[in-house]
Amino acid sequence: ALMRKSCRAFQTPLLVCRMARAATVFILFAIVASVASAAEPRPTKEEWEAKQAEEATAKGAVIAKEKKGAAVGKAIELMESLQAKVLAEGEAEAKTYEKFACFCKD
Questions:
Q1: Looking at residue 17, what DSSP letter applies?
Q2: C-beta of residue 3 within 8 angstroms of C-beta of residue 17
Q3: Which residues contact 46 (CB under 8 A, 6 or more apart)?
């Protein structure tokens, strides 16, 4: 909005104002990019490859741990479901026993 007012005030064509705005944005990006690149030096190819190898090893370890955890979790889940099933069957059998035990006493 500020650029439009100044363009109207100076009676410059709109295309010139747009080109000036684009040039300003380009210069700002160039300054930001130069500051960012100066702040952190780029790694060498060997350093980059070593970092990639470390990350791959770490990812492999995480995946192996997750698989092991998944297997243990599955075993725990199966044991819990078996426990619930055995308890339910025991309760049903206890009811049946009580029913027929009373029947046999009479």
A1: H
A2: yes
A3: none
